[in-house]
Amino acid sequence: MDLIRNYKIHLLALIIVLVSEWIGILKFGLVVLLPLLYALVLGAVASFPRWNFIKLPEMNRAGKMLSIGVLILITKIGLDIGPNISMIMNSGLALIMQEFGHFFGTLIFGLPVALILGMKREAIGACYSIDREANVAIIAERFGLDSPEGRGVMGMYVCGTVFGALWVSLLAGIIAQLGIFHPHSLAMGAGIGSASMMAASMSSIIAVHPEWEETVRAYAAAANLLTSVLGIYFSLFISLPVTIKVYEFFTRDKGGSKAAKAA
């Protein structure tokens, strides 16, 4: 009830939503700017510590309200899957295969960059997945969040929360307008296991291909659900062990975290 009674947060959120929706969807060449982008920017500006407008306790309360919003979003995702379940079942193999891109993409592209930048075992936690809640839990159980791997996964979790939706919103809008991939393929790629990132990228795809709105939502929701369910086991038994082996092969840094964990 203390969360609900915080009228300042609710009023600010309402103002941000109204302003963002008033601006609407803007297109600049291949770049598609969505209300979600404006809302994130306005929220970041309003909560900037130097302004002292939103206090830290209020930010913590707002963070707790996020879980309620995610529940509503997940319900909407389930409602999008139901009417298109037969179409999704026919694309089951494609939805499963895209899991390899979701998780090995972070290994192939992310790990080399992390090593070039000088990261040590933090690179394992940062690059074995997209580092959402379930992935943080895996690293916490295996290494502990006070370990180098734990610092890596938490660093990427924070970056994904702050910049992830912004980045995928712009990227999906640009790729959708290039016409290289079918909207259904783009929708599957949008379901990476993060509800906020999926919503941001899915909205950009729909803005470019409004005629495919219903099926784009269905494919994105199905891919996101599949990633959330299978992704935990994929990360635990495939992605994380492979990332550890690749890191240790290139750096010759073996057993450091095992010793730390034993201590």
Characteristic key phrases:
12 helices; disordered C terminus; DUF3100 domain-containing protein; single chain; mainly alpha; two-stranded antiparallel ribbon
Strand content: under 5%
**Unreliable runs:** 257-263
Query: What is the molecular shape?
Result: globular
Radius of gyration, CA atoms, in whole angstroms: 20 Å
Please write the string of helix (H) and strand (E) elements: HEEHHHHHHHHHHH
State the distance separating the first and last CA atoms: 42 Å
Structural class: mainly alpha
Order of strands across the widest beta sheet?
A: 1-2
Query: How would you sum up the major sheet?
Result: 2 strands, antiparallel
Count, helices:
12
Total beta strand runs: 2
Q: pLDDT average, as an integer?
A: 79
Q: Percent range for helical residues?
A: over 70%
Please summarize what this structure is:
With 263 residues, the chain is mainly α.
Structural notes for this entry:
There is one protein chain. The chain has a two-stranded antiparallel ribbon with strand order 1-2. The chain contains twelve helices and two strands, in the order αββααααααααααα. The model is unreliable at 257-263 (pLDDT under 50). It has a domain at 84-251. α5 (92-116) crosses α11, α7 (133-142) runs antiparallel to α8 and α9 crosses α11 (213-251). β1 (26-28) and β2 form a beta hairpin. With 263 residues, it is mainly α. It is globular.
Give the SSE map.
Blueprint: H1 7-23, E1 26-28, E2 31-33, H2 35-46, H3 56-81, H4 85-90, H5 92-116, H6 122-127, H7 133-142, H8 148-178, H9 183-190, H10 195-208, H11 213-251, H12 256-262
Antiparallel strand pairs: 1-2
Helix pairs in contact: 1-2, 3-11, 5-11, 7-8, 8-10, 9-10, 9-11, 10-11
